[in-house]
Amino acid sequence: QKISDFKKTPYGAGETLTPYEDVTSYNNFYEFGTGKSDPKPQSRLFKPRPWTVSIEGEVSKPRTLSIDDIFKIAPLEERIYRMRCVEGWSMVIPWIGLPLASLIKYAEPTGKAKYVEFISLADPKMMPGVRAPILDWPYVEGLRMDEAMNPLTIMAVGLYGEVLPNQNGAPMRLVVPWKYGFKGGKSIVKIRFTDKMPLTTWVRSGPTEYGFYANVNPTVDHPRWTQSTERRIGGGLFSPRIKTQMFNGYADQVASLYTGMDLRKNF
Amino acid sequence: MAAPFKPSSLQLSWIKRVLFLLALLPLARLIWLGMHDALTANPIEFITRSTGTWALVMLMLTLSITPLRMLTGVAWPVQLRRMLGLFMFFYALLHFSIYLWLDHWFDLMAIGKDIAEHPYVLVGFTSFVLSIPLAATSNSAMIRRLKTRWKTLHLLVYPIAILGVLHFWWLVKKDVSEPLVYVLVLAALLGVRLWYRYRPASQAASRKPLPTRMPKAG
After folding, report:
1. B84 and B23 in contact (C-beta within 8 Å)?
2. Which member of B45, B117, B171 has the closest CB to residue A221?
3. What are phi and psi of B206, to 5 degrees?
4. pLDDT band at residue A246 using 50, 70 and 90 as cut-offs
């Protein structure tokens, strides 16, 4: 299903797009199984509409939005972003979405809001993976307020000119291109503003391996594997690994968010 | 009760041929998938994973020959063990070659760093290196020449198996259900050996002595 109205942006000019087929058949979305080929077949019966998102916590007034409301908050834009998975592979994806900053302004957080938490749907009826206690469901992700307001951060509702396929996090998911892919919560049903750092799912599951920040950083390895290189999906059998860039190549736009922080400790 | 099946030498040679072809099926499948562009979005990970899995499967099959004899007294499959062991080495060699070539393009610095810094790579690499002398001494001439030292050398299969399973366990991000299967199978295969060795004397006496342990030379 095509998205009719979105504007192009200069982001990602010159990047080679990862083929649609790969972007939509190789996914980490544990709610639909832990294998990367599971989400596509396992999410066939998932219903991303009707869909509501509740806005809670430190806001002037809590409310519930429908996905159609969210489509109208700001003009949709195409953003071609690199996506780097913590497992050491990467893609280039033409997302369609709205700046998260627009959504946040619309939500009117109070002055006490320091963090924003994103909670995904965990419905065992539609999401077979949720029936297994692999992770603590629902999936929780979060950002510091300034990270959330950064112009690079978007709430994606589509890719390749189409509404978001189920296996990619329909109907809306977070995309934070300078962080590892798991920071991008999928099928979000709740956005909560808090004054404390949210305890996110992967931090809870392995605090020595996954941090709250999860910034792409080639100089800080995962305890079990290297982060200095990555494999670009779609290159085939004979394409060599490429070097991972600091902040996934977005350092110019985001490095200032972390000045003075020890990125080895705040990994 | 009918006597347990024991193949004639002609039957055994056919069994070996069939087993040989069966053991090549995983490789044939990879080639077929490769020709049909069906190795998933991440083909290198897929074939690395597949060859690693089949090395473990062959290893488990190799290690199941002795428990089978301990539990049932059926001894002839020991004549298939060498082939199974060599197929384990074959898939491990493919697995390691893919890592060396397609994954790292012989970048020895990066590989050395990877082995030194990441325990799951280290145990996998160690397991592979330990299996080299076993493959090299698997022919009949070496069995004859090394005599009892051959048996001692081939006890290495136990650390190889434990490190191999640990390699799988440590590389999984979160869902350990698949490596857990290998942990349980290996535990059972080793458990039968321990039980057989330390079982009460009364049970031991009621059973026939263990048929010859060494594969026949020649």
Report:
1. yes
2. B117
3. -75, -5
4. very high
Closest partner residue to A224 (CB to CB) among B102, B113, B120 is B120
Query: What pLDDT is recorded for position B129?
Result: 98
pLDDT in tens, B59-85: 999 999 999 999 999 999 999 999 999
Angle at which helices B43-72 and B177-198 cross, to 10°: 20
Tens of pLDDT along B156-176? 999 999 999 999 999 998 899
Q: Both tokens of residue A176?
A: 């934070």
Query: Is any Cβ of chain A less than 8 angstroms from the Cβ of B113?
Result: yes
Element of type H or E holding B133: helix B119-136
Shortest distance between the Cα of B189 and any Cα of chain A, in A, equals 28
CA distance A119 to A257: 24
Mean pLDDT of A255-266: 96
For chain B, the residue count is 218
Find chain B residues with C-beta within 8 A of A241's C-beta: 103-105
Q: Which residues contact A104 (CB under 8 A, 6 or more apart)?
A: A116, A148, A149
What ipTM does the predicted assembly reach? Answer: 0.87
Give pLDDT, residue B200: 78
Degrees to nearest 5, angle at CA A74 with A71 and A78? 80
* Chain B residues in contact with A40 (beta carbon < 8 A): none
Confidence check: pLDDT of B1 > 60: no
- Taking a C-beta distance cutoff of 8 angstroms, is the pair A149, A254 a contact? no
Percent of chain A past pLDDT 90, that is, above it, reads 97
The answer on pLDDT for B217 being more than 70 is no
Contact B102 A34 (CB under 8 A): no
How far is residue B13 CA from its own chain's centroid? 21
Give the per-residue pLDDT at B206. 55
> Which residues in chain A touch residue B49, judged by CB atoms under 8 angstroms apart?
none
Of the candidates B41, B105, B119, the beta carbon closest to that of A240 is on B105
What residue of A is the nearest CA neighbor of B43? A237
Q: Is the dihedral of CA B177, B183, B185, B188 positive or negative?
A: negative
Residue of A227, A231, A243, A244 to mutate when probing chain B, most B C-beta within 10 A: A231
pLDDT of A54 strictly over 60: yes
Report the distance separating Cα B160 and Cα A73, nearest Å.
59
Domains of chain A, with CATH numbers? Answer: 20-258 (3.90.420.10)
CB contact under 8 A, A206 and B174: yes
**Pairing, β A188-194 against β A52-57:** parallel
Helix H segments across chain A?
20-23, 39-42, 67-73, 100-107, 145-149, 201-205, 251-254
Say what the pLDDT of residue B204 is. 61
